[in-house]
Amino acid sequence: MHDRPWRAAGVMCLAVAAFVAHDAAMKLLAGEVRMVQALALRNAGVTLLFAGVAAATGELRRWRVLAEPLVWYRSAADTTATLLYMLALPHVALTMAVTLNMATPIVMLPMAAWLLGERIGHTRAVAVAVGFVGVVMVLRPGGEAVNAWLCASAASSLFFAARDAMTRRVPAAVPTMLMALVMTAILGAVCALWATVDGWTPMGQRQWCILALSSSLIAAGYYLCIVALRLGEVSLTSAFRYTAVPWGAAWGYVLWGETPDGAAALGAALILASGLYALLNRSRTQARLG
After folding, report:
1. Model's pTM, two decimal places?
2. Domain boundaries in the chain?
3. pLDDT of residue 139
4. DSSP per residue over 139-194, as a string?
């Protein structure tokens, strides 16, 4: 598949906006419903939606292509990443959770070189190091602000990066909708089993409305993200995840009055700058070669 970088970038920006709005809705819901129950119900709705679309478009009849192991490895990585991130979300400021999740594009650079053979060069390697410093500043090991939930939120980026790298390697013969369907079904099944062990709690009309909104947002985000990663080079496309930072700051301030302190703000700035530098460096390199 030929790379269409700027189209892929635009699609990724839309996906990111949907993801952050979803995170804000789920954080609101988590104060009233256990997260694993919310995830199980959310993914049940999304799975039914994706199954219906796949059936209507005829992609469901191509189910035999799901024998491709990367589809299942990708889904396992996404399930692990999502559980780490979403279980931490009720205990972490939205602004910080989104910022730490932005380590995904930083991790993607060496991972894309290792798994996909993409060239990153010395300057983008420096960007990775700067981004890592930013993550450390946000976490502040040894400081009062650091806790296990912040670490879990940061660790999710490793598995999100692995998922994205594997997305790029899935053969084009595997329909996007089937990939999304398998991913949502596996996460939903794991969360449903967990919620059954813990016990289900009743939900009111407000909770169901928030859940319906979050399900719609995550469905759009999942699909758009897969499309973006299949359109363009993964190390470039993933850089546009950084547009989540202003979205996270806006939602965090409006809904919870979140204002990061100086160290966290500087760390977030380093994370954002490292991603943008890697992006601009890649564009200049392509211009010289083109």
Report:
1. 0.79
2. 5-289
3. 65
4. H-TTSTT--HHHHHHHHHHHHHHHHHHHHHHS-TTS-HHHHHHHHHHHHHHHHHHH
